[in-house]
Amino acid sequence: MRELVENIYTNEYLDKILQKWNSGILEENAFSKLPLQIDFYDSNIGGLKDRTVVIISDALRYEVGHELYTTLADDPKSNIRIDTSLSVLPSYTRLGMAALLPHKSITMSDDYTVLVDGMSCDNLLTRQNILQRYCDNSICVQFDDIKNMKKSELRDVFTGKQLVYVYHNQIYARGDKSNTEDEVFVACKEAVNEIADLIRRISSNANTHHFIVTADHGFIYKRDKLNESDKINVRDKNAFVNRRFIVSNEAIYEDGIENISMGRILRNDDNKVVSFPISSNVFKVSGGGQNFVHGGSSPQEMLIPVLNIKMERGHIDTGNAQIALVSMVQKITSNVTVLEFIQSEAVSDTVKATTYKLYFISDDNEKISNEATLFADSRESDARKRIFRMNFRFKDKRYDKNRNYYLAAYDEGSSEEIWRHHVVMDLVGESF
Predict the structure, then answer these.
(1) Beta strands 257-261; 273-277: pairing state
(2) With contact defined as beta carbons under 8 Å apart, do 178 and 290 qualify?
(3) Which neighbouring-strand residues pair with 408?
(4) pLDDT in tens, 97-138
């Protein structure tokens, strides 16, 4: 099944959509159809009077940003909007991070160093120096440095600041390493939870209520290891070669590769050329992972979220720890079924422990299984440690495959039904 899904994703979805997308990217007015990442500061920050926190999450592709949007939209204290922005090309960290800073010019030197207004922007300090040229009361901080701060410490960081850039690196840190790239889905979920929790903590503890969340680039992920036939061999030793792009002085003319001028991307007279595969193939380079890639021209890499969030002033109410069904179950074929559930967020100052009752019911609310109790009280930050296995044994009776049956979850405290999941009862020899 996994192999079938992978083949459909690659051949029926990715390859087809990338062909059409890249045809559009090469059109003359392609970079006027969507808001551009290179205009981020002027479009979103310039002229703001309220203290604003910009959270830049490395490799937070649009779909993950939308999951964050859904998470925060459920909070009655938040007012949130999500938009789409088109990243720079190549869509990789150094150029994307530069595009999100205020600037008069972005250039790439002959040794492929990215400069903002002629200055380096490769680390936190240099980015802060650039930011402070445009906003005096500004600062750049790493998420890891503030995630565990106490209330008084958070206040010290934000007091007197007009603009704070927070750099978050959960997805890229895991996905871009060969030994952890298969954890990228877990990293995406954890990134959503970390950012949502940070926004709530800053809002309630540091008198800050306006947040913008975006990314430097997205990514493509495929589970299968790449075949040699999927790798494009390039021999230009003077080029800047990445798995999903090449920057060089001359365009590369080979089947499956297109080109665009760097000057068009950066709005200057740079004569260098960006070459990129029009499929999900990669250039052959040594080292690093192969399944998690970015830097190319696909919508998965170039379409990034821009979330604009305003949290209501005052105390942020706590909410119950939520649970979700992890197991993919559509049909019940055994008298005993084991299912996995996940506690969506760790218990914290804003997420309180909750007890749930779970059991199967018919469409007339007859209970047809035992009742399982799930204590959603985990404080583990690692989502994998918040997964629970529950056993369900079904009543020995005849089931009608044409009737509707459900797995239902109830809040034990309020007896409120939280959700129900539809299943087909197909117990051999016991259905009709």
Answers:
(1) antiparallel
(2) yes
(3) 359, 420
(4) 999 999 999 999 999 999 999 999 999 999 999 999 999 999
Q: How many helices (H) and strands (E) in the chain?
A: 12, 27
pLDDT score, position 288: 61
Q: Which of 79, 87, 86 is nearest to 199 (CA)?
A: 79
Residue 332, classified by CB atoms within 10 Å of its CB into exposed (0-12), middle (13-18) or buried (19+), is buried
Q: Residues with Cβ < 8 Å from 199, sequence gap 6 or more?
A: 53, 55, 72, 211, 213, 309, 311
Q: Residue 131 is encoded by which pair of tokens?
A: 């930011």
Question: Rounded to 5 degrees, what angle do the CA atoms 36, 38, 44 make?
Answer: 75
| Alpha carbon distances (Å) from 409 to 71, 142, 188, 326 | 19, 39, 25, 14
Give the E-state strand segments of 27-74 in sequence order. 52-57
* Residue 181 pLDDT class (50, 70, 90 cuts): confident
The candidate with the shortest Cα–Cα distance to 395, out of 340, 332, 339, is: 332
Supply the pTM of this predicted model: 0.73
Average pLDDT, the chain: 91
Distance of CA 102 to the CA centre of its chain: 24
d(Cα 31, Cα 211) in Å, to the nearest integer?
26
Q: Are strands 210-214 and 163-168 parallel, antiparallel or unpaired?
A: unpaired
Classify residue 234 by its DSSP letter: -
HSE of 356, CA atoms in CB hemisphere, 13 A: 26
- Residue 233 in 3-state DSSP? coil
pLDDT at 68: 96
CB atoms within 10 A of CB 90: 28
Q: What DSSP assignment string belongs to 338-401?
A: EEEEEESS---SSEE-EEEEEEEEETT--B-BPPEEEEE----SSGGGGEEEEEEEB-SS-B-T
Token pair belonging to 345: 């967020």
Whole-number Å distance between alpha carbons of 80 and 68: 10
Q: What is the pLDDT of residues 187-224, one digit of tens each?
A: 999 999 999 999 999 998 898 999 999 999 999 998 88
Q: Which residue has the tokens 């029009």?
A: 278
The answer to whether 112 and 240 have CB atoms below 8 angstroms apart is yes
DSSP symbol at 12: I
For residues 299 and 391, the answer to whether their CB atoms sit within 8 Å is: no
Tokens of 328: 């993919």
